[in-house]
TrEMBL record:
It holds the Pfam family NifU_N. This is Fe-S cluster assembly sulfur transfer protein SufU. Residues 10-130 form the NIF system FeS cluster assembly NifU N-terminal domain. It comes from Ligilactobacillus faecis. It comes from the Bacteria.
Length: 151
C-alpha cells in the first residue's frame, strides 16, 4: 500500500469515528465524570467512567460537541482505554502526547492501538488541542486526584 493510500485510509477512519463515534452517550452510573473545553476550537467534552473493583475502566462514555478531530480522538481513546488501569492510562496519555507533538519517534501502536491514526495531526499545530482533549479528560478522570466522583 502506498503512503498516499495509507493516508487516505487513515483520513477515512478518522471521518468514520467522527460520524459514528464509539462509546458516545451517557452511562447509567459513573464513578468519575469530567467536562473539558477547548476554547480555541469550541470543543466541549463530557466524559463518564465506571471502574471495576480493581480500578480498571469497566465502562466509558463521552458526549459533547466538537470538530471532527476531537470527536474521532474521543472515540478512539474510549476504545483503547477500556479495561485499562490508571497506571496504563497514564502511560497511554503520555505516549499520545509525545506522538501528537512529535517529541520522539517511537512506535506507538503497541500502547495506543488504532489511535495511532491521529499521528498526522502533529502536522497541524492548531488541531493538537482538539486531538488531546479526550486524552486529558481521561487522565484527569482516572489518574489525577480530586476527579469528581458520583455517589
Amino acid at each position: 500500500m502506498s503512503l498516499s493510500q495509507l493516508d487516505n485510509l487513515y483520513r477515512q477512519m478518522i471521518l468514520e469515528h467522527a460520524k459514528r463515534p464509539h462509546h458516545h452517550g451517557k452511562l447509567a452510573t459513573a464513578d468519575k465524570q469530567i467536562e473539558l473545553h477547548n476554547p480555541t476550537c469550541g470543543d466541549v467534552l463530557e466524559l463518564e467512567v465506571k471502574l471495576d473493583k480493581e480500578k480498571r475502566i469497566e465502562a466509558i462514555a463521552f458526549s459533547g460537541t466538537g470538530c471532527t478531530i476531537s470527536q474521532a480522538s474521543a472515540s478512539l481513546m474510549t476504545d483503547e482505554v477500556l479495561g485499562k488501569t490508571p497506571t496504563e492510562v497514564a502511560e497511554m496519555v503520555e505516549a499520545f502526547s509525545e506522538m501528537i507533538t512529535q517529541k520522539t519517534t517511537k512506535d506507538y501502536e503497541v500502547l495506543l492501538g488504532d489511535a495511532v491514526i491521529l499521528e498526522g495531526v502533529a502536522q497541524f499545530p492548531a488541531r493538537i488541542k482538539c486531538a488531546t482533549l479526550a486524552w486529558k479528560a481521561i487522565y484527569q478522570a482516572v489518574v489525577e486526584k480530586g476527579a469528581k466522583e458520583d455517589e
